[in-house]
Amino acid sequence: MLPPPAVTRYEPADEGFLMSARVRKLIGMVGILAFLTAYVAVVATLGDRIPKHWAFQVIYFGLAGVLWGVPLLPLISWMNRGR
Where are the bilayer-spanning segments (predicted)? Predict the structure, then answer.
């Protein structure tokens, strides 16, 4: 008969300075607000330069309205790490 496997505790690797979840969320919130402010300014400025045809505007603003979340995914993942 085999002995039961040894139970080991998960211990995260020593990464030096570890931030609390509250500090990560605060930094992430400020980063998200700064990114969205710049993103809206760029999208609105570029939106003035696209043709005034409704189809182009629907495509451009539809994509711009959805794609803002893609660059934020790593930041949101970092904010929620180590809950």
Answer: 26-46, 58-78
Q: How far apart are CA 35 and CA 42, in angstroms?
A: 11
- How do the domains of the chain map onto residue ranges? 21-79
pLDDT interval class at 2 (50, 70, 90): confident
Query: Kindly report the CA angle at 21 between 18 and 24, in degrees rounded to 5?
Result: 80
Residue 60: CB atoms within 10 A of its CB come to 16
C-alpha atoms less than 13 angstroms from C-alpha of 70 in its C-beta half-sphere: 5
pTM here? Answer: 0.72
